[in-house]
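Below is how a single chain appears once it has passed through the pipeline. First comes the sequence as given, then the structure the pipeline wrote out for it. We keep one example in the README because the format questions we get most often are answered faster by looking than by reading.
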Amino acid sequence: MKIVRYEGLGRKMIFFSFAVVTLFLSLFLIEVALRIYGGAKGELKNDIYRISFCCGYKLKANSLSSYDIDPDGFRRTLLGFDGRPENEVFKIVAMGDSITFGATNTKLFSYPSYLELVLNSDRGRVELPKGKKYVDVINAGIIGYSSFQLKKYLRDTVLDLKPDMVIVSIGTHDQSHVLNNPFLWFLEDNIPLFYWYYNHSATTAYLRRVFSPIIAGRKEKSLGELKSGTKSPSEDDLKNPDAYGTYENNVREIVRMLKERNVLPVLVPWPLTEGKGDIKDFAFDEVETVDPRSKTQYRMMAGIMEKIAREYSIPIVYTPFQEPIVSPKHSVKYFMASRVHLNDSGGEIMGFVLANAIKEILKGKNNQEVYSKSYASIPDLDLFDLYFEIINNEEKGRFGEMFYAAKSIAADYCMKYTRDDLTVPDHSFSDCFFSLPDTALSLMNNPDSLHKAKKYLDHSIGRYPKLAYPYFIYGLYYLKSNDPGRAKEFFKKAAELAPFFKEPRKYLSAPESP
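Resulting structure:
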């Protein structure tokens, strides 16, 4: 009888093995077919990923895609320090997901790239350790990474760079996978190939296109129930000890590895705002909020970062984009390409805020001192004010011409290609909110080109009549044109559209000031 039982078990094992092999072979053939088809249609020209047995996937060298990836698998920043002596370069590595990578940003304005420019600018000089002269910021963000993948990537690749500081901003994919689909994260962690397959294979991309209307409908219904109060997040949904514990263990392990090698970890909770990725969902004159479930999950995960920062006496940096955990900020949605992704102007603010924090950290300030001097601590701050401070004061130095040229290109693109529904091909619609008036502002700095600024401002307020920022810049234009009466009209309009925007009110009280 035992022999018969074993023979039956053997047949089942053979059948199971055959079924598994058949499944994988079928998926492989489907993937090959879809890639051949996608390649023929030109759909794979922006493929920047390669399979990695440590982390699921990494970035591959690619200068032909929308993103410029260097031979080491990092997105390029604008400054290069390869020719500098190693002992003269203070090396910062920014680790995270698509937010850090800058999936919604052009090369100049991903926040690691902008951070590097600020820290090496005339105004942004930082007190570096003895012998250090330059700050090299390496963008090690990879789209789709969670804390599991970041931990493995740190161990496998980043530690070999011998960094002085590592910025760790990770959690949005932990939130969506671990808390909402723990089985998916289990597969991603234990089968690295599955992590690539789920995130970047042609097969799953095709399936997402097919089922996206169904998924979108379910998400919209669930969000509507949460906002209306007909459904509340369950206790298990918000306080799953296993899920949050896994995230905490990963972040703690990341910090521990860095501390063991005398590398300074800097924790940065990722952005979570009321931003919209689709112009159809965007409203200029409405106050929007993050849905209750995401907000609660975010607070708990940011709390984990805070706890680890206290335990290891390491920095944690707060930014104006962390809506659930900082005092209310105004006009945030105009600087977002989605609720978590920054547009180019948001990348400028994020890089600038991080640069200020790093200056204080390198002076030996504690977290409370760093926070008290941060823009995140200012109640009722309007980001229009902070943004204008950056472009009016910080971008007139060493790299000023670079910024103006980039924004001029963007503005011309917005002028030519913005559709009637305000979408912009291959760009976030919100990028045009600032590139148009910023280009006008740069032209206004030269009396010989003042007259050229008007067309950008006319186009901007024509497209976005409820956006305060271009009206403010138009007011400055009329001051430069010696027409204080018209300037006052535009400052007043800007103040009406953005009640917390302080800059227009300064000029309303003294309209004769240039």
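The beta strands are 49-52, 56-59, 89-96, 134-141, 165-169, 264-267, 329-330, 381-382.

See the next section for the split statistics.
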